[in-house]
Amino acid sequence: MSVIEYKFEQYKTLGPIIYKKEKYKLQVELLKLQEDVIKNRRRIALCFEGRDTAGKSSTINFFSEHLRPSNFRYIHLGIPTKEEKNNWFQRWEKHLPEEGKIALFDRSWYTRGLIQPAMGYCTERQYKYFMKNVNRWEETQIENGLLLIKFYLSVSKENQQQRFVFRQNSPLKYWKLSANDLKAAKEWDLFTHYKEQVFSNSAGNKNPWVIINSDNKMIARLNAMRYVLSSFDYPGKKALKDKKWSKEIPEYSIEIDGVKFKSLTKEQYELMYRLKGST
């Protein structure tokens, strides 16, 4: 099994003010990395996998917020055609980044090893072919100059259910919840089985899975970006020093889904901060 569980322990006590400062610092560094990618014609692919509501899209938005639009691509493919189902790797190859670009995959070729078999969207033969050939296919891409990081954002069953309820009742996010999401959630244990098979199959793979706990999405985003920045060298790179995040916030207020809550007690604030991080 080729897997890394990545977490920056100091983020546990991170409050919103320091969160914004840390976000700014990391995004500045990411832009430096992109400038080097452009200048030296590097090719970086970041894959984000995980269950529904794990925070894949929001993490990608966090990454892309200040990047040069012409030099990164967001890839989220829809339902494959019959031809694409039978030529799985070719389907994804044409979306790999060109020289000087970063590609952000909102789900990737690993849907063939995760959600598709769990939901019956592929045949057993297609699944077995994928599992047998995916490591070699990735190695070929790396030999051809691709720099690849694969994230698995891990959300608990309880938090997924909470996020479903939040989306269902949110006037801004209701559209994110589909009947298919609820159907997939019912196959929790089966998805877990296929996830473990994918991780086990990665033994010997030069690009390990990076598992990030996303029960708090805000912290997960910082962890993912910190991992990427730690994985590459680029001009002007600043060392990401450990800091303490225990400063008190004198006035407790927070905004959730467009609604601002003011004059909170510390206990109320901490509860709502956890809620915001899990939505």
How would you characterize the overall build of this protein?
This protein has 279 residues and is an alpha/beta fold. 47% of the residues lie in helices and 15% in strands. The chain contains 11 helices and 8 strands. It has helices at residues 16-39, 56-64, 82-86, 88-93, 115-119, 124-143, 157-169, 179-185, 188-201, 217-231, 266-277; strands at residues 3-5, 43-50, 72-75, 101-106, 146-154, 209-213, 254-256, 259-261. The longest helix is centred in the N-terminal third of the chain and has 24 residues, at 16-39. It starts with a strand and ends with a helix. The model is unreliable at 244-250 (pLDDT under 50).
Strand content: 5-15%
State the major sheet. Answer: 6 strands, parallel
Q: Which range best describes the helical content: under 10%, 10-25%, 25-40%, 40-55%, 55-70% or over 70%?
A: 40-55%
Gyration radius, to the nearest Å? 19 Å
Query: End-to-end span in angstroms?
Result: 31 Å
Order of secondary-structure elements = EHEHEHHEHHEHHHEHEEH
Mean pLDDT reading: 88
Number of helical elements: 11
Low-confidence stretches: 244-250
Structural class label: alpha/beta
Shape: globular
Count of DSSP strands: 8
Within the largest sheet, what's the order of strands? 1-6-5-2-4-3
